[in-house]
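Per reviewer request, we include the raw input and output of the structure prediction for the construct analysed in the revised manuscript.
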Amino acid sequence: MMLYFCRMPLLYLCVLLLLFCACKHDNDTDKAPDGSVSRFSINSSLVTPAPAYEANAVYQFMKDNYGKKVLSGVMTLNSFDETNWLKANTGKEPAIMGLDFMHCNRGYNWYDEKQTVKDAKVWWDKKGIPVLCWHWRDPSRLTESFYSNETSFDISKIDDPGSAQYKAMVADIDYISGLLKELQDLQVPVIWRPLHEAAGGWFWWGTKGPEPCKKLYRLMFDRMVNVHGLKNLIWVWTREPNDDAWYPGDEYVDIVGRDIYKQGDHSAQRAEFSLMNSLYKSRKMVTISECGSFPDPDNLINDAAAWSWFMPWYGDFVRSSTHNSADLWKKAFASSYVITLDEMPSLKRAGN
């Protein structure tokens, strides 16, 4: 064989060498040039047509880091309560801060309706990324609850545009759209996570099965994007186990989240990560959108579980060693695999 190769023209040898390299590349597709895992085919653009510059910048930043690093996050209840606690106890703050529209549009005289908008703007100006969810209280106003065992609000009326329930849902969506529009006018992007944990059934939007919930999600998308002109949203669907029938569709979802509460479990949740990548064919970034105990970064690296971010819930989930010790927070924030606020680049348009 060696003698045969020696007699071949140089051009033929070059062709064979190129073919060999191509075959080697095909067998090595799990590795990127920098050694990181690149087994994903993440959608290159957001589902919102012509998205705002800032929303696209955040998405591309997350996509560029997917499989290489994880963004740190924390949920808050009151303005910067948990980010301030982490700063005081670790010297650093997370890149992502979670906020909630829970108290908005209810007429509470003790609540500032614009607080969520103000907090998101402050965080963005600090180079952080705001994530907003909505514990959507009973649209009928018969109760102040969002739990299915405390309100009988009927989401199935999504099929009846003439019903009071349908009109109440649309009115609430329009109100929240107004707050999101204020953020758009301020050039603040939002990772938007509505109707979370629907298939769990504990919220009213999950009480009538997948079809009404999907219709409500798609109605919300249509009104926010096409009626109110919101271009600053990155849309997140929060998955529950065995909820394939609930998924709104690839054309409505940018990222898929999973809320995981396993006390004291700091594993990488590798099985769940692998399952979600299989379900969504590695086209959607997946994330631990809420958690009790967050993964130890060493486990994330060892298991190649490329979650986009992790976000412990507020209160004891952040501060109690039962869920996450101060030492683990310090270790995570010191890890080169974990992105903290001080490591975030400016994702604003030049000059803003």
